[in-house]
Amino acid sequence: MGGIKKLCLSIIALLFLAAPAHAAFPSVATTNTSTSSSRTTSHTVSLPASIAAGDRLICMSGWNESFGATSPSWPAGWTQKTFQANGSSTSLEVRERFADGSEGASITVTTSASTRAAHVCYRITGAHTTLPIEVGTAATGSSANPDPPSLTPSWGADDILWIAIAQTIAGVSYTGDPASYANGLTADATNGSSGSSIRVVRRTLNAANENPGTFTVTSNPWVAQTIAVPSAAAGASGYSSRRAFRGGP
């Protein structure tokens, strides 16, 4: 009987050794915001400080135009993850880049029409080195409660950095964020009612799905989005089952 018990303990120990090491949640290391308050086709987007090779960069932009069939033109290496307009006067865009350390302090983005813009950019450490971020189906509306969509990332349950975004007209007041989300950043390209305003909040949560609550803002047309940033261990075989067996990290 003792031999069977020892064999079982040996098998359990081998399973733990074979399972991937638990990774920490991705972390927002530095941030930056910038705006184009006057109409222009050339927009300076300020990047976060201390960018190093291997960092994950995410820039979230609110544009005061829909741009028709075209979208803003970014430098090489910035991958568009979502672009959604609401009517003809407001749109939200998210771009991602795997940093190589050559990014500098800012980039220039060009638009097909003169417009105003507001940007929030994150530098993230501890994220997966190859899996891209995933986004929901952008939501639109006209009310006081921008509602980011539900999102179920393809890699399954993981230590995920979740990001919720509300984009609307400039000069609004944000008076409430989705429950459990914090560290809000707002960029507002104010120019009467024709500018652009964006607010970004975040949380960490191990889950396979997330549906953020609503923002509260001065009633206006809006676009809302949800982003999931995968941890270094996302998608690794045995990772989720190991967490379930242990009951935690």
Give a summary of the structure in a few sentences:
By secondary structure, the protein is mostly beta strands. 10% of the residues lie in helices and 47% in strands.
- Domains, number: 1
What is the approximate shape? Answer: globular
Structural class: mainly beta
Mean pLDDT: 87
Give the low-pLDDT segments: 11-21, 237-249
Largest sheet: 6 strands, antiparallel
- N to C succession of SSEs: HEEEEEEEEEEEEEH
Helix content, binned percent:
10-25%
Supply the number of helical segments: 2
Our measurement of the CA-to-CA distance between the termini, rounded to an integer number of angstroms, reads 32 Å
Q: What's the total number of strands?
A: 13
Q: Characteristics of this structure?
A:
five-stranded antiparallel β-sheet, single chain, mainly beta, six-stranded antiparallel β-sheet
What does this 3D model show about the protein?
The protein contains 2 helices and 13 strands, in the order αβββββββββββββα. With 249 residues, it is mainly beta. It has one domain. β3 and β4 form a beta hairpin. The two termini are 32 Å apart. The C terminus is likely disordered.
